[in-house]
Amino acid sequence: MSVSGNQAATGASARKLRVVMAQLDFLVGDIPGNTELILEAARRASSEHQADIVVFPELCLTGYPPEDLLLRPSLEVRVNEALERLQAEKLDPVIVIGAPLRHGALLYNAAVVIDGGEITGRYFKRFPPNYQVFDEKRYFAEGRDVLTLDVRGVPVGITVCEDLWKEGPVEDCAAAGARLILNLNASPYDIDKQARRKALLERKSRENLVSIVYVNLVGGQDELVFDGGSMVFDHSGVLTAEAPQFGEGLYPVDFLCEHHCQPVSQPLPEEPSLEANVYSALVTGVRDYVNKNGFKSVVLGLSGGIDSAVTLAVAVDALGKDRVRAVMMPFRYTSSMSLEDAEAEAVTLGVQYDVFSIEPMYDAFMESLAAPFEGTKPDTTEENLQARLRGVLLMSLSNKFGSLVLTTGNKSEMAVGYSTLYGDMAGGFDVLKDVPKTLVFRLAKYRNTLSEGEVIPERVITRPPSAELAPDQKDEDSLPGYDVLDQILNLYVERDFSADAIVAEGFDRVDVERVIRLVDVNEYKRRQAPIGVRITERGFGKDRRYPITNGWKSGK
Fold first, then answer.
1. Is 418 within any annotated ligand binding site?
2. With b meaning 16 or more CB within 10 Å and e meaning fewer, what string describes 205-229?
3. Rounded to 10 degrees, what is the CA torsion of 77, 80, 86, 90?
4. 161 is catalytic
5. How far is it, in rounded angstroms, from Cα 490 to Cα 497?
6. Is 300 marked within a binding site?
7. Is 145 helix (H, G, I), strand (E, B) or coil?
8. CATH placement of domain 276-463
9. φ and ψ of 218, to 5 deg
10. Active site residue 553
11. Are the CB atoms for 180 and 234 separated by under 8 Å?
């Protein structure tokens, strides 16, 4: 592979360059559809924005992450057909796309530059990541070369995603004469991610005296959500343009290139609150999972509690009220408050709402189990039966009407196993799977600020949480308070603190050891749980892969 393309023009006159950041949502595996999306975007960038360069996200041709689709024998044929299709259009702007390319016996995560129907540059990602949700080394070899090339008389360097986070690729592009670096990304969202990106881009652009165009993918893919937030930093480390997070679009940026390529500053979007950012991530994740998988609608159990209330609001905001069905399934322990609040939520949001009592089914099961249960005392078995009957009802509605069941468990509950296999865990997608309970409360309050009236009744937010599986039951009867529990879980699950280290932070040892034990022994449940939107750096899923069977002892 060539180290560089054509040598850049070095005339004294300044050149104007318009770069369009194509922040778009691609479907994993749909190479023909993604190819057409690239072509349509490039044509629009040309006709509407008079683009010189259009930059697309990492692996946009296949969607990200393609996972084991990269092992399919026909991958190379399909990618080559797509590249031929893109070349045949002979588009006016230069386009820079991401695609998996085979070179010799090895597969690379590549950026491809197409100018006037010809491929003028190929760049192989030098640092395929292999941590958290990333396992690119399973598929991709490491590139070694630098790519700088002349684009409309401007020396431009190309890098891909993780290359920005390591020492070498940006520095090598700058040393090769690049004044502008285009960085293609498929960087998934977590709560602090955009701030970390900005700090990195500020440092890299300033230290290397180059402007950097950072183009990121947007949309949901299984548990991952990509937030876009594409941006431009100038050679002095100043943020000059930023696309909104969670929104598709074509975002043009003008550069005046002489000694440096100076972007023309644009008004920056307002910094969203944490709650607004997380809520947008949940809406995006639900919308794309449902739509990309072809579900007509969703159904969920509405209990009158805060988790199902927030889940309902997210579903309606993602899909519209006509595609959401809520079902209240009361039992003898269900309070009148829960019945009233669930109905109020459904009516306010305008969804189809049904009430199906599980009492007759419960009685029938208990009659059948009377003989084997004779001489025993009621315990969690009877409580779990209630949850499982509700799961059967929801899955029956799912089967009959083609609706995806949304489960409503939060991260705190999933961590300690406060959930029932084949009961409240029965479903296809858990909206709040990576949302700690304390954040659920904040999201409920935030969602109420988006409407004139309350979508989630105030007493749903203020009442003590309860599964209502037994008389006068409260979550905190069997768990530490959520304000304490979530802090312990953050330290243990997301930051890998030991029990001793958590105690040293000021937490009660009895609480710490109990919580850690609950986390460890409930791994088997989480393996059988539906996927859900990842919003933290360490979600339950691809991020955290603990053995179910193990002899590890907590402590040090």
1. no
2. beebebbbbbbbbbbbbbbbbbbbb
3. -130
4. yes
5. 9
6. no
7. coil
8. 3.40.50.620
9. -130, 150
10. no
11. no
User: Is beta strand 231-233 parallel, antiparallel or unpaired with respect to 239-242?
Assistant: antiparallel
Q: What is the pLDDT of residues 543-556, one digit of tens each?
A: 888 888 888 888 77
Q: Does 187 count as an annotated binding residue?
A: yes
Q: Which two tokens stand for residue 297?
A: 């609608």
Which token pair is 423? 């009961």
Q: Is 384 annotated as a binding residue?
A: yes
As a residue count, the chain comes to 556
Which pLDDT band, with edges at 50, 70 and 90, does 259 fall under?
Answer: confident
pLDDT digits (tens, 9 = 90+) for 422-440: 999 999 999 999 999 999 9
Q: Which two tokens stand for residue 54?
A: 């259009």
- Distance from C-alpha of 419 to C-alpha of 415, rounded to nearest angstrom: 10
Q: Is 320 annotated as a binding residue?
A: no
pLDDT at res. 542: 85
What global pTM score does this model have? 0.93
The highest-level CATH class for domain 15-269 is alpha beta
Which residue ranges make up each domain of the chain? 15-269, 276-463
Beta bridge partners, 429, equal 406, 531
Binding residue per annotation — 353?
no
DSSP secondary structure string for all residues of 269-318: PPPPPHHHHHHHHHHHHHHHHHHHTT-SEEEEE--SSHHHHHHHHHHHHH
For residue range 320-374, what is the model confidence (pLDDT) as tens digits? 999 999 999 999 988 899 999 999 999 999 999 999 999 999 999 999 999 999 9
Of 440, 384, 444, the C-alpha closest to 417 is: 384
**Cβ atoms 46, 93 nearer than 8 A:** yes
* Catalytic member of 125, 204, 411, 433: 125
The active-site residue out of 76, 136, 137, 161 is 161
Examine the residue annotation and report whether 58 is marked as an active-site residue of this protein: yes
